[in-house]
Amino acid sequence: MRKRRPMLALFGALLFWVGLAATVLFAAAVIYLVATGSSADWIIFAFTVPPVVIGWLMVRRSGVPFGDAINL
Questions:
Q1: Which end of the chain is more exposed for a tag (fewer CB within 10 A), N or C?
Q2: Any idea where the domains of the chain sit in the sequence?
Q3: Where would you find the membrane-spanning parts of this chain (predicted)?
Q4: Each residue of 32-53: pLDDT tens digit?
């Protein structure tokens, strides 16, 4: 059985939530810009999606169940 690393899970969960919130926020902004006829800058997702993935990988690596780490 692997050793659990709760601090790694905590930092991973925080990174996951921050990245997810930024992704949702920028997705809403892109939808608004496209709906009003302005051009949207899609490159911003290159900066918001990787923190979600890195946070998820950190939680997986920690050995703590994902649901427990993000307190769902």
A1: N
A2: 6-64
A3: 43-59
A4: 989 998 887 778 888 899 999 9
